[in-house]
Amino acid sequence: MTVPIRNHDIAELKRLDLAHHLPAQTDYKLQQTLGGSRIITRADGVYIHDGEGHQILDGMAGLWCVNVGYGRQELAQAAYDQMLELPYYNTFFKTASPPPIRLAAKIAEKMGGHLTHVFFNSSGSEANDTVFRLARHYWKLKGQPQRTVFISRWNAYHGSTVAGVSLGGMKYMHEQGDLPIPGVEHVMQPYSFNEGFGEDPAAFCARAVKAIEDRIVAVGPENVAAFIGEPVQGAGGVIIPPDGYWPAVEALCRKYGILLVCDEVICGYGRLGQWFGHQHYGIKPDMIAMAKGLSSGYLPISAVGVADFIVDELKDKGGDFVHGFTYSGHPTCCAVALKNIEIMEREGLVERTRQDTGPYLAKALATLNDLPLVGETRSLGLIGAVEIVREKGTNLRFLDKEGEAGPVVRDICIRNGLMVRAIRDSLVCCPPLIITHAEIDALVAILR
Ligand code: PLP
């Protein structure tokens, strides 16, 4: 079935946008200056189309989420069928419907091993709120109520709710609203291009891990509930940690009896070439947060995967976990997520990312290294970054001196038909997992 292309009155939409709409994470003064938001009207495969008739290669999969690409009729059909049968019912007070139960079992299969249970929410932020509350609840049940502190990294992104911003390490977000809330400690991120430039990778890795251990000791290990981190930091700039970092962090958590939490909101669902990012690093977190690729963004849904020993404690001690949302286990969202996973399995998107398109993207990005502006390219699976430098062979940035170059280059890319994101002086990409070699070539050609 072909979907008819609707004509939108873009001038009218821009007028209404300015008059009534507050888009997320936006400078409203700039929104006025620009005459309204960029309006995306439709999408297909790896391409989005704006209201002015431009076709743009979506190098960001929306907001790091449209893993199976746009225009999947099967997902629309799954939503349609479920809406007619049971559009909504809640999972409060010992109630459920078939889709969340089936989806929980499917996710448990993908997580494998000791991560056996799943708690549903609607957004990545809510998933991390759930992690926050569940970890503290667990330690109370265990008779260690003083274990409340979370250790996280600078530039981590864990969401936009009060707990999400607090767990996250974005200083500019902390500044609005007097955050973080008490009980969150931030340590250095394993960003070798910035913080370990020219340093031996093993020495840098040891230094980044020691920063965590030093903080655990300073806080008092008996007070620490959990360490939380994205396997690869996304919004922090696509920070791929050095080899050995995650196993060493896991060992620290085990040494001090601290819960290890992976925020898989971006890294989950094939992004790093495994179902979950932690599987790439061979570690066993005690909880994982997931969202985005779980439904490829077609409907809002997130989840927390929980280890059996935590669930055993809840089951053993009893008492309500007094946490949950109206849309926890939303049947339609769960039905779409189930279909999304089925598509990923059928098309082998995880394996393809690991064995084919991921390595292809790495090679293609590396061809940019001859450019005088490029300081480093890096990627893992289908997430990557290009560092822009002021002087080749250094990590000196334009932002040190003349403002950020990243947004300037990003705007040039968009004008040339490529959506990428600027994070300070780097450009990052995270395309749909269906991207082909030819589309990767086009992405890199526009970047060049
Ligand atoms: N965690 C990570 C790693 C993210 O990248 C994001 C969003 O980009 C979130 C959490 C928050 O997810 P949401 O925007 O769905 O609340």
UniProtKB/TrEMBL annotation:
Record InterPro entries: Aminotrans_3, Aminotrans_3_PPA_site, PyrdxlP-dep_Trfase, PyrdxlP-dep_Trfase_major, PyrdxlP-dep_Trfase_small
Claim: Acetylation is one of the keywords in the record: no
Database matches in Pfam families: Aminotran_3 (PF00202)
Any one GO MF annotation of this record: transaminase activity
GO CC annotations, alphabetized: cytosol
Cofactor dependency: pyridoxal 5'-phosphate
Keyword terms, alphabetized: Aminotransferase, Pyridoxal phosphate, Transferase
NCBIfam families linked to this entry: PRK07480.1 (NF005682)
Family the entry assigns: Belongs to the class-III pyridoxal-phosphate-dependent aminotransferase family.
Name of the protein described by the UniProt record: Aminotransferase
